[in-house]
Amino acid sequence: MSQAFALTEDQLAIQDMTRRFTADEITPRAARWDEEHLFPREVIRATGELGLGGIYVSEAGGGVGLGRLEAALVFEAMSYGCPTTAAFLSIHNMAAWMLDSYGPDALKAQHLPGLLAMDKLGSYCLTEPGSGSDAAALATTARRDGDDYVINGTKQFISGGGVNDIYLIMVRTGEDGPRGISCVLVEKDTPGLSFGAPERKLGWNASPTAQVILENVRVPVTNRLGAEGEGFRIAMAGLDGGRLNIGACSLGGAQRCLDEAIAYVKERRQFGRAVAEFQNTQFVLADMATELEAARALLYLAAAKVTAGAPDKTRFSAMAKRFATDTGSAVVDRALQLFGGYGYLRDYPIERFWRDLRVHRILEGTNEVMRLIVGRDLLQ
User: Fold this and answer.
1) Angle between helices 350-358 and 313-339 (to 10 degrees)
2) Which domains, and CATH codes, for the chain?
């Protein structure tokens, strides 16, 4: 795989470590996880030993304190074996970072060590059955009762729902709109917290997804991250990095399919010669590689901006997410076409990547919403 940026020795070492872990522990097993709908808890836990449970959690918080480019390298390398597993780890890292950045010290001391070691797994809970792209319209309520909040509502499409241990939940504590939203941590065994049936999905079969249902769930006010009314800002800050991560997952999956397609067309023969010898094949491969490198360059640039806290970081993370996930899907689709009928079979990995990468254009903000973010920022 070529590089869009010149990486430092440390960055190359992180990338190499993740590639080796992926090749040994993920790539040989990913097809079975998908087919049998298996959540690889032990492999996920093993990433904690590599420091991947808190990639950009601060060193003061016990994490490794890396930047968003290093995180992108990790998720890109891991997605080469299984985008689903990499995306699950991304969401966990987003939750750990939010707790480290906005949680009170006592709450961090209680939960961060377990999250960093991957002994505990974290979920991010924003979407609801009635509010997807319009996230600020969420209806889950947290009513103040003395030193507690009493929470009622339902969260939809939650990765790790029913499996994970920690849920960072966006709740309404005040007025309508974003200013009335707060962020509260709820533990899995809290009375009144339950989960819907596992969702039956097109892809991401190795990652559990379910509703998170809250019925008179009582948690201490000290479980709140940030001040009351800051939850929407916290949620959006988490999404800047989450969008980069999911874009990186698309890059890694698409790169795998490009490499698989190159190997296949060299071997596959039609009309007396290798499919790779046809000019049309070469043009398709050239476009796939060019678009993938362009998406990678934009994503790495956006990652540097988010790490630096640049004023235009949100616009660039939205641009990069939109472009990388659209490009990733398009590259995998063309790889499947190059495989012909064999690409449609589970004997080859292409159809799994085609299914897994499709949802990346929806989650962490749909690509239509990414266009809104970019357009509004340009017109300010």
Assistant:
1) 150
2) 9-117 (1.10.540.10), 122-229 (2.40.110.10), 232-379 (1.20.140.10)
Residue 221, strand partner residues: none
How do beta strands 166-172 and 122-125 pair?
Answer: parallel
> How crowded is residue 297: how many other Cβ atoms within 10 Å of its Cβ?
15
pLDDT at 176: 87
Contact between 111 and 166 (Cβ < 8 Å): yes
195-37-325 Cα angle (round to 5): 90
Q: CA 254 to CA 56: how far, in whole Å?
A: 25
Catalytic residue (one of 128, 230, 260, 364)? 364
Q: What is the 3 state secondary structure string of 312-335? A: CHHHHHHHHHHHHHHHHHHHHHHH
Q: Are 173 and 230 a contacting pair, CB within 8 Å?
A: no
* CA–CA distance, 101 with 238 (Å, rounded to integer): 10
Across the range 186-199, mean pLDDT stands at 98
pLDDT in tens, 47-98: 999 999 999 999 999 999 999 999 999 999 999 999 999 999 999 999 999 9
The model's pLDDT over 153-192, given as tens digits with 9 standing for 90+, comes to 999 999 999 999 999 999 999 988 899 999 999 999 999 9
Question: What number of other Cβ atoms are within 10 A of residue 302's Cβ?
Answer: 30
Rounded to whole angstroms, how far apart are CA atoms 93 and 21?
Answer: 18
In angstroms, the CA 183 to CA 99 distance is 10
Reading the block at residue 118, the tokens are 């991957």
Looking at residue 87, its amino acid is: A
Residue 2 pLDDT exceeds 80: no
175 three-class SS:
coil
Task: With 0.85 as the threshold, say if the pTM is over it.
Answer: yes
Of the pLDDT bands very low, low, confident and very high (cuts 50, 70, 90), residue 6 is confident
| Distance of alpha carbon 1 from alpha carbon 266, whole angstroms | 18
The number of beta carbons lying within 10 Å of the beta carbon of residue 365 is 23
What's the token pair of residue 21? Answer: 């872990």
**Is 364 designated active site?**
yes
